[in-house]
Amino acid sequence: MAVSTRTDLHLARRRTTNFVMLGFCVLASIVALVMLGLVLYFLASQGLKHISPRLFTRLPNNIDIKQGGIAHSIFGTLTLLGIASLISLPLGILGGIYQVEARGRFAFAVRFLTDVLNGIPSIVIGIFVYAAYVYPLSQRNPGSGFSGYAGGLALGIMMIPLVMRTTEEILRLVPFSLREASLGLGATRWRTMWSIVLPVARGGVITGIMLALARVAGETAPLLFTILGNEYFPTKQANVLGAKVTVPAMNTAIDALPLRIFNYAVGPNLEQHDIAWAAALILIAMILIFSIAARYATRGGVLEEH
Amino acid sequence: MNSRTIKAAAVAAIGFGALTGASAARAQIITGAGASFPAPLYQRWAQAYKQATGQQINYQSIGSSGGVKNITARAVDFGASDGPMTASEMQNAPGVLHIPMVAGAVVLAYNVRGVPEHIKLTGPVIADIYLGAITRWNDPRITALNPGVNFPAANIVPAFRSDGSGTTNIFTNYLSQVSPAFRERVGVGKAVKFPKGIGGKGNESVAALVRQTPGAIGYVELAYAENNKLSYADVQNRKGNFIRPTIAATTTAAEAARLPSDFRLIITNTPAAQGYPIVGYTWILVRRDTKPGVKKFLQWALDEGQKMAAPSGYAPLPANVQKRALAVVNSLQ
């Protein structure tokens, strides 16, 4: 009898603990979801009414702000993400593969330093690019340091550790038996990586890249020191296949959505605030569309990020 | 508007491929950055200049300190500041010239429920508000200046600039002249440490802070107060007259000062009887070997551009200063 009572008590306590802890978990999830919901709701309620086609087709108008748009900021953000991807994807993915394949002190050091790079505040990376790129270039060619390239470089540096770590994590999830089968059939290591491991991990790697892009797309601090901002859509005459055409210029100060939001949101002018809200919504929507498109384009991958 | 409308889709389509393959003719956009004090005017100038000549001038309002730093680093084609560069800053930036563009008034904008526009303040009272010695709107020293105005017992929230600012330079230069306590405890500079209050980046932010904060008082360029429909104070000048900050009172103060040959002079606390005391020139900073496009823009700004100053809330240059500034610009390579 005594034993049975003790067991009952024990069971009851465990059930209670389970119930309480489960309650906390559910509560935490709900709070997180509510936060996200509130942000999105707030953004949509303020931003939707100010979205209009002119925002996508016009440039800022400093005489009549209501008539202005942010076409160049949208294009600028897309370009920055493009340049950042060109820099960070090869480095990040190759680095990630190295982390999985290599053993030893150097690989450990690389992983540690990648984490350190990941922890560096974005504004410090902006200052670094100013000192390493914007300033030296300005000495040779005054007035040319602030540029889309500098901004892309700053965002690219931020993306490298993000892409590298997610690539590594995903590659580690690929079952070792797959590699063993491939190697057992006589495939070389690079053939195994290229034809077996990477295709299996494709979906997860893409997800990691999208997360990295989403993370840097909203960065303002590094852009303050690298692209400066622009009221115009900088263009230049270029020779493409023998024909003179006007193309967007990247070697000069450009604009980007987070910077425009930052400048307009602190502005005293209410019309600027309206555009800032709309711009914030456009930025979120852009990231969402990217993510969905990337998921759709790469559907069928075996491993997703957990 | 048609000329400003971009065919974004077409441009994006050309996009990347063209970017990388294209032989680079340098972009012909001219980039300037600096003071927020004259930014509304410079941006209007840029827009009018684009319509007149097709040349794009990109001016970004990042604060006077940023303007000085970036012209020193040669990262921009021109900088802008409303505090003259210090001797040590000049040493780091050989060949940089100060060109005065317009004069402006720094006004004390406030947001107090039930208090009318244009209350009267004196320099020492403003200094003590910023020092934290006067903490409530119904302080006897304020009510004594404004008989018949019913001030609430609300706390005064001083708003100041958190970034390096020529506006701060003008403001603290004035207060240090009229209040020994202010000179001792805060001093003069583009970035000083105020003992009390809330900070904002740029004239834009300080104006926004004043508009949003009940009981706030802040110093901003006249145009920012006007554009945001903020109430602002009349300030007693050296001759004892309470002067409303206007274009005319700013011009009067500017005309009373004799600028040295390099134009670097702060002109606060004017001796003129009808001059507003918290007034300053704002300068564009250019390298002696600047681009031809910058020279042309400055020539236009000192000539045609001056007509746009007053409607935007700034005082055009006095005739003799304008002539001298133009002569310096014409001498640029």
What are the key terms here?
heterodimer; A: 306 residues; mainly alpha; MetI-like fold; 2 domains; two-stranded antiparallel sheet; 4% strand; globular; B: 333 residues; alpha/beta; nine-stranded mixed β-sheet; 14 helices; 41% helix; elongated; disordered N terminus
Largest interface, C-beta within 8 A: A-B, 51 and 56 residues
Rg value of chain A: 25 Å
- Give the ordered list of helices and strands of chain A: HHHHHHHHHEEHH
Rg of chain B over CA atoms, rounded to whole Å, is 21 Å
Q: Low-confidence parts of chain A lasting 5 or more residues at pLDDT below 50?
A: none
Assembly state (oligomeric)? heterodimer
**What is the CATH topology of the largest domain in chain A?**
MetI-like fold
Strand content of chain A: under 5%
Helix content of chain B: 40-55%
| Count of DSSP strands of chain A | 2
Q: Biggest sheet of chain A: strands, sense, closure?
A: 2 strands, antiparallel
Explain what you see.
The complex is a heterodimer of chains A (306) and B (333). Chain A has 306 residues and is mostly helical. Chain A folds into 2 domains: 36 residues; 198 residues, Orthogonal Bundle (MetI-like fold). Chain A is built from 11 helices and 2 strands. A two-stranded antiparallel sheet of chain A has the order 1-2. In chain A, strand 1 and strand 2 form a beta hairpin. In chain A, helix 8 packs antiparallel against helix 11. Chain A is globular, with a radius of gyration of 25 Å. Chain B is elongated and about 60 Å long. Chain B has 333 residues and is of the alpha/beta class. In chain B, strands 1, 2, 3, 4, 6, 7, 8, 9 and 12 form a 9-stranded mixed beta sheet that branches. Chain B has a 3-stranded mixed beta sheet with strand order 5-10-11. In chain B, helix 5 packs across helix 7 and helix 12 runs antiparallel to helix 14. The interface between A and B is large, with 51 and 56 residues. Chain A: GO terms for molecular function: phosphate transmembrane transporter activity. Chain A: Belongs to the binding-protein-dependent transport system permease family. CysTW subfamily. Chain A: One of its GO terms (cellular component) is plasma membrane. Chain A: This is Phosphate transport system permease protein PstA.
